[in-house]
């Protein structure tokens, strides 16, 4: 089942992972499958970064989640698809803390 909702002049593309919903609001002309894959890629990066991510990780480390979003998306577009590159950058940023 394709998880897409029409909302005004946009589409909301979402995917459910173990009780958590991840949503992206995109232009009506954007490719649904590309953004479903981007959501999946994002969740895999979170899972690797937090070692089996759960809701509490997202709540108490929201600033880290925003950092992951910043590494993977730029101005609402997919910026990086390589999980290895994203995780490497995240670990470098974490070492600066």
Automatic annotation (TrEMBL):
InterPro entries: AP_complex_ssu, AP_mu_sigma_su, Clathrin_sm-chain_CS, Longin-like_dom_sf. Keywords: Membrane, Protein transport, Transport. Residues 4-96 form the AP complex mu/sigma subunit domain. It is a peripheral membrane protein. Its main location: membrane. One of its GO terms (biological process) is intracellular protein transport. It is found in: Endomembrane system. SUPFAM superfamilies: SNARE-like. The keyword Membrane applies. GO terms for cellular component: endomembrane system; membrane coat. It comes from the Eukaryota. Belongs to the adaptor complexes small subunit family. This is AP complex subunit sigma. It comes from Colobus angolensis palliatus (Peters' Angolan colobus). The lineage of its organism: Eukaryota, Metazoa, Chordata, Craniata, Vertebrata.
């Amino acid at each position: 089942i394709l998880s897409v909702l029409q909302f005004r002049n946009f589409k909301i593309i979402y995917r459910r992972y173990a009780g958590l919903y991840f949503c992206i609001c995109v232009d009506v002309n954007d490719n649904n499958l590309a953004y479903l894959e981007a959501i999946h890629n994002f969740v895999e990066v979170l899972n690797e970064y937090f070692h089996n991510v759960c809701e509490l990780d997202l709540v108490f480390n929201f600033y880290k989640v925003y950092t992951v979003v910043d590494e993977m998306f730029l101005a609402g577009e997919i910026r990086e698809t390589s999980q290895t590159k994203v995780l490497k950058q995240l670990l470098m940023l974490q070492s600066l803390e």
